[in-house]
Amino acid sequence: MKKKCKVVFLLLFLSISIAFAQQKTVTGTVSDQSGVPLIGVNIVVKGTTNGTQTDFDGKYSINVNEGQILAFTYVGLKSVEITVASSNTINVTMEEDAAALEEVVVIGYGTQSKKLLTDNVAKIDASQIEGISTPSFQGAIVGKAAGVQITQVNGKVEGGVKTIIRGLSSVSASQEPLYIIDGIEMNNRNTSSIGANLNPLLSLNPNDVASIDILKDASATAIYGAKGTNGVILITTKRGKLGASKVSVDFSTTVGEPTNKRDWLNAAQYVELLRESAFNSGFFADQAASDAWVDGRLPRYQGDEDWRNVDTDWQEEAFQNSITKDVNVSVSGGNEKTTSYISGAYNDTEGIVRGNNLKRYSLRTNLDHKVSNKFDVGLNANYSSTIIDRISGDNSFTTPLQAIAQVPTSPVYLSNGDPNDGTLYANFLLQDKHSFRKTSVRRILSKVFGDYQFLPSLSFRTEFGYDYLSQTVDRNTGRLAPFQSTNGQTFASNNGTEIISTNNYFTFDHTFGELSDLNVVAGMTYTRLKNRAISVTGDGFPTDDFKSVSSAATISAGTGTFTNWAQVSYFARATYSYDNKYLLKASLRNDASSRFGADQRNGYFPAASAGWIISEEDFLKGSNVVSNLKLRASWGINGNTPVANFGSLGLYGGTAYDGVSGIAFTQIENPNLKWEETAQTDIGIDFGFLNNRISGEIDYYVKKTNDLIFNERIPFEAGAPGHAILKNVGNLENKGFEFVLNTTNIQTDNLTWKTSFNIATNKNKVTNLPNGADLITGRNILREGEPINAFYMAEYAGVNSNTGDAEYYLNTENPDGSLNKTKTNDFSQAQRIIMGNPNPDIIGGLSSNLNYKTFDFSFTFQGQWGASLYNNAGQYQETGFGNGLDNQDVYIFKNRWQNPGDITNVPQARLFRNNGHSASSRYLQDADFIRLRNITLGYSLPESVLEKIGFSKVRVYLAGLNLITITDYRGYDPESSNDDANTNTNVGNTFYSAPPAKTFTLGVNLTF
């Protein structure tokens, strides 16, 4: 027995000895394709729990037996498996996994695999907006997402930006998408105090953006309920990564000029046309008499020079070459416990319009800390200060662009150097010299969060967000400024908006068996907005050196308002996939808002979607051609709320009568006021061929909005203030196609060329109005069966070739229902008809990226077709002095009717006679265009040089913005529009609106 025990013990000892003899320590370094060591790579002995991670130098050490397999994994890179042989050193190079990089998209309250997504979400990474010099991040994503129209109102540095996703879904409620930054709702409310819009998202530094996910269909946006009708834009900022600290510094200088300058009459042309126009007017007996009138009139505007010796190009005085200096510095890194991203930025922009400048300072800190294996906490904090030298709105005589109306025989300055105060209209340079309008925008945007993992499949996240937007205005008008009737005036205001919000939700994510995956999110969110605005105006100052209100002789005006609004919501979403090819998703949100009466306070917004990944079926899974083919369909309901916080309530306010205070009725109540509701259906196909070298999406959507919120007119006898009541009346519809095509044209070791093309159609129409009656506002109309805000005006018929009269079509209705196309020179007889659409039928974009060794090159084209734009200033600029003495477009001079038989669309010039200057389709033009939006050429130093100088990246780049615009539009810019703050009226109108800037940027990116 003892012998047997000894034999067993000996055999056991020998087997253990052999095992230990086979086991050894393997070391090595893991790096990426560029040779940079990778920190935190997971290394596991396959089939065991034995594993380790690479250190800060990308090095590792692990005990392993020969013949075992080492598995190397890292997020965003292809996994590597290596069988251990005799060598004790194994160095590994890991390649990018393109599929993994594109795999995850941000959705409401979570993320999801792009492959398993049943929604329509457009994703834009930081690499796609690098090197694009623009004051706002919205400007950097123009043309990069199908169905997303982004338009800068004009060329002012602070100019408002309109973002429309899949067409307009409201008339009087918000038309802008919901912006969410790192999970927290951003305030996108315009609080400008001068009429002209100011972009509230200027406070966001584009260099801090890591990715932008645009939720377009209802399945994606319904989780945001009453705020998702116009789409949702999710902004994710950069965060620290595990590893040694990295410092990145970006410097750039940008120079710019207007994208377009128009041709205006010089002095000789102006005098010639004025003499001709005066003679044609019939006011004078002969040419000599009319010439004498001209010779006697022009000296009024000559200042202290002889007008015959003056030839001023006022356009050159209004515009200037711009220059922008941009500096961005960031530090990121961290260890297993804590990672951080800290950045600071400075932007100094001198605009293309004289007197318009901007300075922005911003600081951001993003921290992530692992308290334990189950508990994570973090902080996002951003502070920005933006100081803007603003100019008057477009509809103001003192705005620089209205200087183009000045007489070219007027000198800019007097002989003593002062601006000429005897011009036809107020000389804007007097405003520039004797007044200022400074706006300061300060913003605090922050979030703290905690994430606790109760179980491997169950976690809870709580977020608290704070958004404070403060805008102060200091406006001083000196006694010598235009239109100043007192000894100076000062205006000061402060508008502060505070949003407090919290999100609290559970996430359950579990795999049942090997085929079923279920993800459930459920929680609540609360948002409260408070706004306080005050202003004061003081008149009369001892000298212009005193500029504060406290020095005023009289406090002539003052206002103060306070408002708030709150909403509490509950939401749930379930996503299920079976065998990674059959996909289902459903969500439901309940919103309760203080903006509605008690009976209509709650709104329910459901959504559902499904998908089938056909390429995962056996009959396609092994295909060498089809690499991805997915069908998806979605349906859901979103809501929208009125702009007014108390729109459903009957309101009273304080007033004064004969010096006695009192109370006045200010708003009639409507307890039945409820949400606008938009039901959207989307059917889509995702495809990929040849290992996804060719990929894309095709979508068809229908959006139907019911219960549009209007101020409906009511009889005078009802005694309602404004003779209107806020009601739910009217429906509208948007439908269209979207097509996206991404191609990898060339993929070699040294050369990569990729292209992305998108195009989208949208057909918009009003489907129901109260009693079928038209609603007309200015030159826009809401009519059943027609596009929203369609142009409604008299139809210009050209010029009578015998008389030079401007003519219009009668457009009265014939007995058979057709329109009478008889021409008349009497404008009052012409009936108004629908003449155009301010909304484009088609928008598109084309982006291309090429990398050759250490060179990179990229560009983006954008375009739109089918929209019209009304030049509201045309009645002054293109009338041949029929409506004043404003300088005229050279087009009028070259094409005017002069003799019987002339065939032209420009009528005879007649001084102070209405010959074609009434509002008609004469001033309505097609706004189709194709624009080279941006282009960038960069060069990065090779690794061999970087190692010697101690940098990990040095890149120099040259970029351009708005370099080429191809259009038949004769105005300044086919995208420009009047910057009146009320964007829901006079839609599609431009009025002395500045074009955007054409810029060239030289910059350098440094990382060490």
Number of strands: 53
Class per helix and strand makeup: mainly beta
The CATH top-level class label of the largest domain: Mainly Beta
Q: What's the total helix number?
A: 12
Report the CATH topology name of the largest domain: Maltoporin, Chain A
CATH superfamily of the largest domain: TonB-dependent receptor, beta-barrel domain
- Helix amount: under 10%
Outline the biggest β-sheet: 22 strands, antiparallel, barrel
Q: Strand share of the residues?
A: over 45%
Estimate the mean pLDDT confidence: 90
Q: Uncertain segments of ≥5 residues (pLDDT<50)?
A: 1-21
* CATH architecture classification of the largest domain: Beta Barrel
Written overview of the protein:
With 1008 residues, this protein is mainly β. The strands form 11 sheets. The chain has a 22-stranded antiparallel beta barrel. Strands 10-15-16-13-14 form a 5-stranded mixed β-sheet. A 4-stranded antiparallel β-sheet has the order 3-2-5-6, with no helix packed on it. A hairpin with a 2-residue loop joins strand 13 and strand 14 (184-185). The radius of gyration is 33 Å and the shape is globular. Mean pLDDT is 90; it is low at 1-21.
